[in-house]
Specification:
DNA-bd_dom_put_sf; single chain; three-stranded antiparallel beta sheet; 3 strands; BldC-like; 13% strand; DNA binding; DNA binding domain, excisionase family
Length: 69
């Protein structure tokens, strides 16, 4: 059985969904993840997913806080 990493169920977005929000190519989103601008979560199938809260914070220009959330 797979458990979420956080106590509450967190909404995850696909690279295509993130790309649409930023109006960029999905490959750009993957590059951002590799550069450390976004935290990616890997599915069992190896696909990347992104936390909606983190994506919206980046979209709004809010500096990300890794601890104490």
């Amino acid at each position: 059985m797979v458990h979420a990493r956080t106590p509450e169920a967190e909404s995850l977005l696909t690279p295509a969904e993130v790309a649409t929000m930023f109006r960029v190519d999905p490959k750009t989103v993957t590059r951002w993840a590799k550069a450390g601008k976004l935290t990616s979560i890997r599915t069992l199938g190896g696909h990347r997913r992104y936390r909606e809260t983190e994506v919206r914070a980046l979209l709004g220009g809010v500096p990300l806080q890794r601890s104490g959330q």
